[in-house]
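#help-structures
NK: newbie question, is this the right format to request a structure? protein is BPI fold-containing family B member 3
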Amino acid sequence: MLGMWSLLLLWGLATPCQGLLETVGTLARIDKDELGKAIQNSLVGGPILQNVLGTVTSVNQGLLGSGGLLGGGGLLGYGGVFGVVKELSGLKIEELTLPKVSLKLLPGFGVQLSLHTKVGLRGSGPLGDLLQLAAEVNVSSRVALGVSARGTPILVLKRCSTLLGHISLLSGLLPTPLLGVVEQTLFMVLPGLLCPVVDCVLSVANELLGAVLGLVPFGALGSVEFSLATLPLISNQYIELDINPIVKSVAGDIIDFPKPPKPIKVPPKEDHTSQVTVPLYLFNTIFGLLQTNGALDIDITPELVPSNVPWTTTDLAALVPEVLGKLPPGQQLLLSLWVKEAPTVTLQSKKATVSIPATIHVLNSLPAGTPEILFELNGIMTFNAQLTPSATKLHLSLSLERLSVKLASSFAHPFDVSPLEEWLSDVVRVAYVSQLNVSLHAGIPLPKILNVNFANGALEIIENAVVLTVAS
């Protein structure tokens, strides 16, 4: 497996920095418990043990048979070091008990990974009787953390050894000298049989780590591509990945926004939790993509407004008589709302707001012909954002907090537009907010961190970032 990768191994790396995210990336901290869980699940759900066991049992004569390691003129067979081995035949490994996984993170290097398992053997004893044995084995390995040629984090097996524990005789008779031969044989054979299990487990873990990076669709408007911004770091409790999110339009154009002026102060991670920090930069860039695609623009017609909201020249003449009082009564109005500049997202302690600048044209709908613009307004709409995590995304739902407008132009002389703010706020709530929330339905993608599910994670809004924490 090593030959498939071009590796940059992390020899002597410092431990993760204490609470400062210098780049604009999405910071992921993977707890060691989560890594251990992923490795354990790879053994439970995958064919790793079955594949290894199949390789062992495919030798028809067994490990100690006439064609095995100890048979004929083999190393320990008849005529070899121990002549007593001719009394055994067909001893095979028939069962590998599901290993118990334990791991320790090695700062600046990788992982100390241990698998404790039991090996079941079956064959014929010296008297031709059924012989069954069970041996406890501990597989100990050192695994380095590196970066593959694809730019993904990768775990690489550097050293593997096995320690043979207690051997139990479950059935049959086996003299002490023969038991010693079996012990020596297993000591020789098991590293070659069980160390590949570690390699297979790491392959599964590396697939999960590799899924951190890649292209994630953002609805029909574009995508977010995640890549490593810096080398992975490792501490006593977690692996830290600084992931760079790149937002692209459907055409493949990068939507880029100015970087924040100062680093984000990331809160410390508690033990037995995994954490992902979503920076303000990603929020602003996603809204920039919405604005670029015109998803924030809307034409509001009478069909989109409930009957209890005033919508004719007669209904609104009392608010701005200088303009609407001069028009024929009962004419339907139209609103055209354009967002020509990118919205601004603000993340502060426990609160998220979105400010959307808009140009609003108020038109009257003529019985025949093209609607005419009565006046133009420049407005700022401020929305409260409710943030909710799912398994792989951060979802936003907006509600209007306030709206302020200024007169930009009018077919009549200038007038005070403040009496229209409450009416416009009602129109925005009933006709515009729902469209916004539909556009945001795709959610902000989160990088895939092993199989961590953030749906039930704790969400904390800090200055210029959102932090999601989930217990391992």
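mod (FA): yep, format's fine, and the tokens are attached above. The helical segments are 32-45, 48-57, 176-210, 280-292, 313-316, 421-439.
NK: thank you!
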